[in-house]
Design brief:
This protein is globular. It has seven helices and 13 strands. With about 260 residues, it is an alpha+beta fold. The longest helix has 14 residues, at about 40-55. It has one domain: CNF1/YfiH-like putative cysteine hydrolases (4-Layer Sandwich). It starts with a helix and ends with a strand. The strands form three sheets. Strands 3-4-7-6-8-12 form a six-stranded mixed β-sheet. A four-stranded mixed β-sheet has the order 1-13-5-2. It is about 25% helix and about 20% strand.
Length: about 260
């Protein structure tokens, strides 16, 4: 698993950006696939989640995840829920110790948050759609509703698709740059004429800054390029594979 020093600084939280390694799944899902519903047997996914929580010294039932829909919907968490009751959302915030806020990703950027003064945590699933829709700002706002202050919030951006792997078409940048002209340097020419390479993590960091969060650290990895360590939606699509696993990222306040 991968951690960032910024979130580890005061020992008040446990967190991890898990890789694909260390689980029980096989084939396209080998091995720590934590995403239900992709074709991996549910018992394997449940076991993988339990293994991940063991590494955070938490029971499996303390992990909460949402039905992620690339939205800006963020919910407050006051207790764990059952899988069937998971809300459709892409961000969470909590001030309850021992509850692990988890997000799933396979190229999108997982973002974990902590305000050590207010003892509030957050987690967001930030693909380009969710980031553009405002999931970062909405997560910070939900944390603020629980007592956090943006100036105190620390954010870790986990492994996601890197700019060298994220080729987009000529129409892709238009709405992003129209909304934020300062984002234009996040796009550079690709080898294919008329196409561009997009820096997703840089865009997420920019949205964090706009939300007032200045304490940010990245985990410098490219999920599409590092096959031995990460699942990747784009890599699966390029190969014509019909399924792919999801990495888990999680954060919990120490009880």
């Amino acid at each position: 698993m991968i951690t960032v020093d910024l979130l580890d600084a005061d020992g008040a939280v446990r967190h991890a950006f898990f890789t694909r390694r260390g689980g029980v799944s096989r084939g396209l899902f080998a091995s720590l696939n934590c995403g239900f519903g992709a074709g991996d047997p549910s018992e394997n996914v449940a076991r993988n989640r339990a293994l991940a929580m063991q590494r955070l010294d938490l029971p499996a039932e303390r992990l909460v995840t949402c039905r992620q829909v690339h939205s800006a919907v963020v919910v407050a968490v006051d207790r764990p829920w059952r899988r069937a009751a998971a809300p459709s959302a892409d961000g969470m915030a909590s001030r309850v110790p021992g509850v692990a806020l988890g997000v799933l990703a396979a190229d999108c950027a997982p973002v974990l948050f902590h305000d050590p003064v207010a003892r509030v945590i957050g987690a967001a699933h930030a693909g380009w759609r969710g980031a553009f829709a405002g999931v970062i700002e909405a997560t910070v706002a939900q944390m603020a509703a629980l007592g956090a202050e943006p100036r105190h919030i620390r954010a870790g951006i986990g492994p996601c698709i890197g700019p060298a792997s994220y080729e987009v078409g000529p129409e892709f940048p238009l709405p992003i740059i129209a909304e934020d002209p300062g984002a234009e340097p996040l796009f550079v020419p690709a080898r294919r004429p008329g196409h561009l390479l997009f820096d997703l993590a840089g865009y997420v960091e920019r949205r964090l800054g706009r939300a007032g969060v200045k304490l940010v650290q990245w985990a410098p990895h490219d999920t599409a390029a590092e096959e031995e360590r990460f699942f990747s939606y784009r890599r699966a699509c390029l190969r014509g594979e019909t399924a792919y696993g999801r990495q888990l990222s999680a954060i919990a306040l120490v009880e």
